[in-house]
Design brief:
By secondary structure, the chain is an alpha/beta fold. It is built from eleven helices and ten strands. Bound molecules: adenosine-5'-triphosphate (ATP) and magnesium ion.
Length: about 290
């Protein structure tokens, strides 16, 4: 099966024709299959956003190849199809709003695709339904909360029927409720509709929701593993000034105090179960 995203020895530098090769992306190899939910982590400036912009040809490789559904991003003929295949969501929802009415905002992309009115209507309703914002369709986006705006922005991308959503720190400007709503929406789109998700985040609790975590350091992929494995490498994460999910941190503290909870805990339910089990064991011993 052709991977949805295939990256082969990608090298990139912003300033072309430099004699000294200082690679921002330094030999990235990565395959993402349709239906996956991956998170990309790494310290500030390690190249996450630069990499994301290669996924829909906002940036082109200085060397190496990026293929989207087998289409080379360097070939201009593929540009429109690639941009319809991979939808991008950025940090600031305000920058992604185009219209003064929610449904008109979501209709913007399908209108540009030249679709007929019935098809546009259907896509707008489906997209707003999918992100849980249908009841706001006649509202003005400017009065919505950050999380609601971000979900409208996601609906605008969904109306193009992309195979993949690439989200570059989509929750970093949101309050906790907005964050939770956006992450719940992303998971729903992945599970319910099989939309591939690439989530760039500094929030480890969000990254723990993914099935696979890619860790970048200075333009190189240094880990590509399930989150349970990446988050046990605490000294590596500390070296990169990254944290771990809150429950993982709690389990580490408990283990340091001699309470036997397993490592590789990244979600609240598993953490709760293991603490209860440890307490029961402790009681039985007394
Ligand atoms: N337009 C640009 N021109 C020149 N250099 C750039 C440009 N954009 C980013 N860079 C540099 O490229 C490197 C990688 O930046 P990038 O934004 O991809 O990192 P990041 O991992 O997304 O960081 P953050 O976590 O802060 O968002 C940084 O050193 C940055 O200064
Ligand atoms: Mg960035």
């Amino acid at each position: 099966m052709t991977p949805l995203i295939h990256i082969d020895d990608l090298h990139f530098q912003y300033l072309q024709n430099q004699t000294k090769k200082t690679w921002i992306l330094d030999g990235i190899n990565l395959d993402v299959n349709e239906g996956e939910f991956i998170a990309i982590l790494g310290p500030n400036g390690c190249g996450k956003s630069t990499l994301a912009k290669h996924f829909n040809a906002l940036l082109l490789p200085s060397d190496g190849k990026v293929l989207i559904n087998g289409m080379d991003t360097q070939n201009r003929k593929n540009l429109l199809t690639i941009r319809q295949t991979i939808g991008m969501i950025f940090q600031n929802p305000d920058n992604q709003i185009i219209s003064t009415i929610v449904e008109e905002d979501v209709a913007f992309a399908p209108e540009n695709l030249g679709l007929d009115q019935t098809e546009i209507r259907r896509r707008v309703d489906e997209a707003l339904e999918a992100v849980g914002m249908i009841e706001y369709r006649h509202h003005t986006p400017f009065k919505l909360s950050g999380g609601q705006k971000q979900r409208v922005a996601i609906a605008g991308i969904l109306a193009m029927r992309p195979k993949c959503l690439v989200l570059d720190e989509p929750t970093s400007m949101l309050d906790p409720k907005g964050r939770a709503d956006v992450i719940r929406t992303i998971k729903h789109l992945n599970r319910q509709f099989g939309i591939t998700v690439v989530l760039i985040t500094h929030n480890m609790d969000e990254a723990a929701q993914a099935k696979r975590v890619i860790l970048l350091e200075q333009g190189k992929v240094i880990r590509d593993n399930p989150p349970q494995e990446v988050f046990t490498e605490i000294s590596l994460l500390e070296k990169l000034h990254l944290s771990v999910p809150q429950v993982t941190e709690l389990c580490v503290k408990l283990r340091n105090r001699g309470i036997s909870v397993p490592d590789q805990i990244i979600d609240v339910e598993a953490c709760t179960r293991s603490i209860i089990a440890a307490l029961e064991e402790e009681n039985a011993r007394r």
